[in-house]
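Build the 3D complex.
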Amino acid sequence: MGAFEEDLYRDVILDHFKNPRNKGVVNSPDIELTGANPFCGDEIQITAKLAGEKIQDLRINPNGCAISQASASMMAEALEGQSINEIKSRIQLFRNKMLSNGTDSWPEAMEDMESLEGVKKYPVRVKCAVLAWNTLSEGLAEYAIKGAGNKVALRHVEGE
Amino acid sequence: MDDIRRDFPLITQGKVVYLDNAATTQKPRAVIDALVEYYENYNANVHRGVYEISEKATDAYEAARKKIADFIGAKETASIIFTRNATEAVNLAAYAWGDANVNEGDEILLTEMEHHSNIVPWQLLAQRKKAVIRFVPYAPETGKPKWEDLPSLSSSKTRLIAFTHVSNSLGTINPVPELIAQIRRLAPGAKILIDGAQGVPHLPVNVAAWDCDFLVFSAHKMLGPTGIGVFYAKKDVLEGMGPFLGGGDMIKEVRLDGAKWNDLPWKFEAGTPNIADAIAFGAALDYLNAIGLKAIHEHEVALTTHALQRLRAIEGVTCYGTKTAPERCGVVSFNLKGMHPHDTGTLLAREGVAVRVGHHCNMPLMRRLGIMGTTRASFYLYNTIEEIDALAAAIPKIQKVFM
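Done.
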């Protein structure tokens, strides 16, 4: 493998791409989201079941490039079972790392995501890495407004 | 071909195997020089100055218009309107002709193979006028629109049929003269617009022989600068149209209670035009004429034949479009099994090969093909067999990354 594959298509990324974790759809979800990136045609479906302030079950159905699919898979794996507050701070950390070169270290649950840092060298592809995260973030913001017990269904379009 | 390559500074630098000519082409030294020459030696406005450099600029600007008319076989320079690009030219047609001639219940006929810029302006017109848009479906099995559906899709309500000469994402060549003859019989009341953005750079076009009402194209896809394009229309059609944009230069006389429009073609060129780029477009046409479109097309067919052969021989490659090269124009669109085109494009870039990836502003066509996008390699006169081989050699390497 050349330097490029090491910095962009690393084994961890390709593993998540080929074997996406938490793949599927949650039955009667509390949150049902679609994220789309019109530039590449990527689409990701995110469904989640909540138990109080915790995300009990989080499933993804990614359809896109290796970077967007792997990032979604890592997200689903790392955020399932977490409290909404914890999820929000992890989303914030991820965005800091990807979009503004944040220097915080990755917590253990988010170790795999270190592999995505290579994407920063390819600015047009950063959008792929943040698609799932931005979609979930918008969904949770809507959930906070609507209040628990009210189903959230929305479509997030990257760049809008 | 080495001689030709030396005329292109960016090609000579050899930094990249440039196979994205359907997006934009490289520029020869002659075109770059024409831009510099204008700005350094006779930069002045046109149609207004009474001094020498303004007269020179006006002459060069109008001479470029004449070169364009000759290049596409237009009978009169009055039919050649400068726009920013082909997209603006379609919009000009949709507003200046469409608003006055398309009414509620009228029909507009397009194909599923159209670029977004030959769909969206018509959708906007249809919304404004409550008109109906119909589409000739695309047939993935042949790589062509189902032109046999034309009789059932056209009617006395059809006001306009707009379709591309050459598909930007597949390279499919439409048999324009035969189709126009058929449309004239089926829908005698309809105007015909040809999107020449991917055709005019590669194939001889003759609007007078074709008898189309409108033709649009862009300079930057045929060695010219960005920001300059052409709207061609039959003179009598233009005379029946009101202006598109209002302002200076498109008027003969303005009074506080109204204005009189200028003569053609200036009626449709409001404001200071893109003088330098129009002149440099003229230089691009001189360059193309010296080589000849016939030689260019033959070269492209050879490259395309070779590319199809090489790519189809690689396991996991799916090519889209027509079966054989002569039915298409310098484009090979493909996907690699298990890989998204954006990953393919990023990895090819790493191997020094520049291609376009994604939906190519053809989302309805991609939907019909059941894919999110393709990887598109597109060729022009300066590309070589060795560059096709570089693309083909890179593919197994990048496939390995995903194995």
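Helices of chain A lie at 3-7, 11-18, 66-79, 84-100, 123-146.
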